[in-house]
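Private note to self, pasted from the team thread so I don't lose it. Backbone tokens:
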């Protein structure tokens, strides 16, 4: 059976919500009114890409320009890719379903080296040749940006241009250059020449490896408060919350940390700007958590004030605040108390090394005493678990350092009582470009295995959980992080051999990579072995803003375990980041909390109970029950209404669905009961306001106020009516004709159905659950009424396959619509 569009494939894949688009705050422009189309591509699944702040920022900047249309692409999961290739369906955008090849520019965000095969897969699926040299005049310009671009060599042959540094500062220059070139009739080579003239842009075919490309830097974060209206994802993402970047850059100087080096200098947003951003983003998304993002959130100048201010403002709406990146010495009791006011977001502490000597070598600086004191504060404040991050394979590491990790893990566990949990996460050190350790060696796979085995033998407490990063993934990540243009042959060979999602342990195929390495004769030690500070490096044509002299000095300091203090307190070390016209932007003085207008407490208002009837149609039928309920909660939040919440450390809005609507089923008669505080409008006004904030395909049909003791929906409803529109011919079924099978079913007293659940097969008599069923062969529609009992119900798809006898692939293409409910008498 063949298919002609992504929409037809949705019933056949897991998590179809990844591919449907139509999210709140997504933008679909009229291409006829635009002078440039820009595809923003993220080489991982929707849930990962939608959690990335950078892509949201660029989407907002581009679409804020009336003459530019920016749309999104994410990597399809293997089940979807297989169907797309089988049916020759190209990778298309979420907004307008336009193939990747139909855009003027395609910009990839390279966050992680193990996503490179996904980049090639997306290009190939989108109808774009993977090599720049093979692209014809009408092919889009393919550009890459992100942290991996600080060593672009391993993917240089696949891209037409690279953006080095911070994208906000250059994205519109690139766009306007292409607009200008197109209007002057420039061919592909002429457009690349225009890009080559832009600071921070490397065009491999024109610049070669000799021209030094200096990174672009945003000097004033206050000018870039995008996005105030971020896209609200339809499926649960990795970071399902608002992300506010409070500062950029870090001056702690950890010698293994590439972000801490390449994103210098430190710049902060003012507290006033952040408070305004929080208000706008919460109002436009309906999220219930804010993440205050920075490489070291505790180093933000006014972190205690900001956290307290946001908590005071949004406590009644139960908005939680998360600090995802905290050094142990910056986590004060006041911060802990504020974080736990709404709900306890997770705590992760990163000692990195097991002994003070090694922490000094890597310039981590914090002490065991500080770590244990912080763990004690966290456990005393009510947290039951802490995550600890360590690295193995650090320069000068000894057996004593490994034993120190074990000792620290047990000491942290002892700081808690009553079955507290400590998770120890072990990753392998990778000597990344533009760090003082870029000349150090990376330990071998066998060495990693030996060290991991040591921890498996020595961390064996029931309340100590051990995790480690795949050693073969670490090997490959290091090879690509330190590779040159020759490694591009390896990436291409692995892609053609079937490698995808190499950063996912269940998809990683190291045997393919190993064969490709052997076939190409790659000498691994040339890339992962120790280097001399005078050696030429593959990334020498990139200027990250940090001088080689500074990195060399830090490397030499590490040999003597000599610390380098934070330059914000100890003075300038002449690293090069703050030279020229770049200035450090710090937050202004905080506004007194007492000067804020008091927000009337919704607790003072009575609870209003509403019963809502809504429809779910079209692509929205592919949302799971969790995705559907989250969309409704967010829409109500965006509309300005305030939920009543459950009590406890993890409060939830009071919302009650009587049943879960299966994925793939549309409905004209869904119901939900909610409880609000401070409600003061008509049901008609509520309906209109919330409908304006719902994603495409979900619509409230009616709203009514109900009394506290109104019978619950779950006790009221006993069954449903369905209308099933069968796919066009050829009809595919097993055995006798569906109408004959349905007649036999209606005449029978019982019908045993088999259902697989959690690895076991359940046999159930569904005949008493089907009160009516009829097939209109002329219209190709099945009408039926079903009911459920304490033992459960029957799914429409089961009726199609096991009663009517349609084969599974055909049945999944049917359009199933719930048309009515049946209530108890």
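Design output:
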């Amino acid at each position: 059976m063949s298919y002609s569009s992504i929409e037809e494939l949705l019933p056949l894949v897991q998590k179809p919500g990844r591919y449907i688009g139509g999210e709140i705050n997504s933008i679909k422009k009229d291409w006829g009114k635009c002078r440039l189309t820009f595809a923003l591509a993220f080489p991982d699944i929707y849930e990962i890409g939608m959690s990335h702040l950078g892509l949201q920022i660029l989407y907002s900047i581009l679409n804020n320009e009336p003459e530019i249309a920016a749309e999104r692409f994410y990597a399809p999961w293997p089940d979807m890719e297989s169907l797309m290739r089988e049916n020759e369906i190209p990778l298309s955008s979420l907004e307008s379903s336009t193939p990747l090849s139909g855009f003027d520019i395609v910009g990839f965000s390279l966050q992680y080296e193990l996503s490179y095969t996904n980049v090639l897969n997306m290009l190939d699926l989108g109808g774009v040749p993977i090599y720049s040299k093979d692209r014809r005049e009408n092919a889009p310009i393919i550009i890459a940006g992100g942290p991996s671009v600080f060593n672009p060599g391993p993917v240089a042959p696949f891209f037409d241009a690279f953006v080095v540094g911070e994208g906000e500062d250059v994205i519109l220059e690139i766009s306007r250059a292409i607009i200008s070139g197109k209007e002057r009739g420039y061919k592909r080579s002429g457009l690349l020449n225009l890009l080559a003239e832009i600071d921070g842009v490397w065009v491999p075919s024109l610049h070669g490896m000799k021209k030094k490309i200096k990174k672009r830097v945003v000097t004033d974060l206050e000018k870039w408060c995008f996005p105030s209206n971020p896209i609200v994802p339809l499926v649960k993402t990795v970071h399902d919350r608002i992300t506010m970047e409070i500062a950029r850059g870090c001056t702690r100087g950890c010698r293994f940390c590439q972000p801490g080096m390449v994103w210098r200098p430190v710049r902060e947003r003012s507290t006033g700007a952040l408070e305004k951003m929080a208000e706008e983003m919460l109002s436009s998304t309906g999220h219930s958590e804010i993440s205050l993002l920075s490489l070291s959130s505790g180093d933000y100048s006014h972190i205690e004030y900001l956290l307290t201010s946001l908590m005071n403002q949004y406590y009644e709406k139960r908005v939680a605040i998360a600090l995802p990146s905290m050094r142990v010495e910056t986590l004060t009791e006041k911060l802990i108390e504020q974080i736990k006011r709404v709900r306890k977001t997770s705590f992760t502490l990163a000692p990195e090394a097991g002994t003070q000597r090694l922490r000094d070598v890597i310039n981590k600086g914090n002490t065991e005493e500080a770590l244990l004191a912080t763990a004690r504060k966290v456990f005393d404040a009510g947290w039951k678990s802490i995550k600890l991050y360590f690295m193995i394979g650090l320069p000068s590491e000894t057996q004593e350092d490994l034993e120190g990790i074990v000792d620290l893990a047990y000491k942290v566990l002892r700081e808690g009582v009553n079955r507290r949990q400590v998770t120890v996460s072990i990753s392998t050190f990778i000597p990344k470009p533009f760090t003082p350790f870029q000349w150090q060696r990376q330990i071998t796979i066998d060495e990693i295995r030996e060290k991991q085995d040591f921890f498996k033998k020595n961390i064996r407490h029931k309340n100590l959980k051990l995790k480690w990063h795949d050693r073969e993934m670490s090997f490959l990540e290091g090879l690509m992080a330190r590779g040159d243009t020759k490694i591009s042959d390896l990436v291409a060979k692995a892609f053609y051999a079937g490698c995808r999602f190499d950063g996912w342990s269940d998809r990683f195929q190291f045997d393919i990579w190993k064969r490709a390495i052997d076939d190409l004769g790659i000498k691994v030690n040339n890339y992962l072995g120790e280097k001399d500070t005078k050696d030429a490096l593959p990334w020498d044509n990139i200027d990250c803003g940090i001088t080689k002299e500074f990195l060399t000095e830090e490397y030499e300091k590490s040999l003597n375990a000599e610390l380098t203090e934070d330059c914000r307190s100890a003075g300038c070390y002449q690293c090069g980041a703050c030279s020229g016209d770049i200035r450090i932007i710090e937050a202004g003085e905080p506004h007194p909390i007492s000067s804020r207008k008091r927000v009337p407490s919704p607790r003072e208002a009575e609870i209003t109970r509403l019963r809502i009837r809504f429809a779910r149609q079209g692509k929205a039928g592919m949302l799971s029950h969790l995705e559907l309920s989250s969309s409704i909660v967010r829409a109500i939040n965006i509309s300005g209404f305030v939920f009543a919440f459950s009590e406890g450390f993890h409060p939830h809005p009071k919302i009650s669905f009587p049943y879960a609507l299966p994925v793939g089923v549309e409905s004209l008669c869904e119901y939900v009961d909610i409880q609000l505080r401070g409600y003061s409008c008509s049901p008609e006004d509520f309906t209109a306001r919330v409908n304006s904030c719902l994603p495409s395909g979900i619509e409230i049909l009616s709203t009514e106020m109900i009394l506290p003791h109104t019978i619950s929906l779950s006790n009221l409803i006993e069954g449903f009516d369905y209308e099933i529109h069968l796919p066009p011919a050829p009809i595919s079924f097993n055995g006798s004709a569906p109408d004959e099978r349905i007649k036999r079913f209606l005449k029978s007293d019982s019908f045993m159905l088999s259902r697989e659940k959690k690895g076991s097969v359940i046999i159930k008599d569904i005949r008493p659950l089907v009160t009516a069923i009829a097939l209109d062969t002329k219209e190709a529609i099945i009408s039926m009424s079903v009911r459920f009992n304490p033992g459960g119900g029957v799914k429409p798809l089961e009726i199609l396959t096991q009663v009517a006898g349609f084969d599974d692939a055909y049945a999944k293409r049917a359009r199933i619509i719930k048309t009515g409910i049946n209530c108890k008498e």
